[in-house]
Amino acid sequence: MSANPSRAGRHFLQIPGPTNVPDRVLRAIDRPTIDHRGPEFARLGRDVIDRVRHVFQTAQPVVIYPASGTGAWEAALANTLSPGDRVLMAETGHFASLWKRLAERLGLAPDFLAGDWRHGADPEAIHAALADDRAHAIKAVCVVHNETSTGVTSRIPDIRRAIDRARHPALLLVDTISSLGSIDYRHDEWGVDVTVGGSQKGLMLPPGLSFNAVSEKARAASTHARLPRSYWAWDDILESNRHGTWPYTPATNLLYGLQAALDLLMAEGLPAVFARHNRFAEATRRAARAWGLEILCQDPEEYSSSLTALLMPPGHDADKLRLAILEHFDMSLGMGLTKLKGKVFRIGHLGDFNDLTLAGTLAGVEMGLEIAGVPHRKGGVAAAMEYLASEASKAKGVRRAA
Ligand SMILES: Cc1ncc(COP(=O)(O)O)c(C=O)c1O
To answer: Is the CB–ligand 1 distance for residue 74 below 6 Å?
Structure first.
């Protein structure tokens, strides 16, 4: 359905989250309320608590909160740290800055490694800061895996190695709110202590659920962490989760949605999900290069597969372009946040999304550039289509050979 009732056809919601919710997930949520302490709920609870671990690629517990991602950010800090603790955070963009502000408000002392909002967290800078900290005063390193404001993905395995090289005991806390279920991410293999996730992006659910995947080391830290916590306390939740329930009212219907979303992700298989997102991102970058628009992310190793942020030519306002596209084609694109306001627009290509969704999205952008009078070359959509078609024929070849 269109966001604008006077319009026919579907609204194109191509922001980098909240993303489009598949019909199957919507139908799963659309059920009568059940008793959250009854046996039917316990079956649902046990199933999602067990299977959600798959998307984090972990065998360790995942705590599910009835909260937006910000709640899970707070939970990760409140469960593991004590007032005044130093935490090393990397300024990758708007969301990393918000997480840092949250840490300050909780009474922590963040060391904020400066960044230019065009690169991911720098493993060498993290190594240097930890190597300098001989007294081990830094208790945690906090990194946003995929910075949604910039379309830059930090290299978590390199950051893990940097921490290990410095022989530093700090916990590693990672925000995967816009990478979970769309960009390869491995909580166990990469030695992450707390992974923060959210429901409204790669998981293809409405906003309202968020997650902490928790390592043994993080659980051990939580036993002596002194930041006040009640709603967010892992122990109470994990204890109750043993029976498939929560210590307070869970978001019952969203958990039905989670069950359906896990079915979808598991049926496709995570490697295929990641490959699909890589393909959308590459096609989008090809379109951008053909248009002559600059990609905000400067290091190809850090290109995000869930969204692409594009810089406007000097003197042109990204918000005017977005408004023209919304008015003429009923499509929403992501805006530039804080210091990127008006300078970039962001194309979300994650979640319930296929080649033709991308082709339609890019067509809307190309027509919008024309209508808004933004200098560009034609041929972005054609370049993306050529790439998508060649990838489709390769996949067909693979299927035939199999
Ligand atoms: C990377 C990242 N972290 C944290 C957040 C905050 O999550 P929420 O808005 O669900 O509280 C967002 C929201 O978009 C995000 O993209």
So the answer is: no
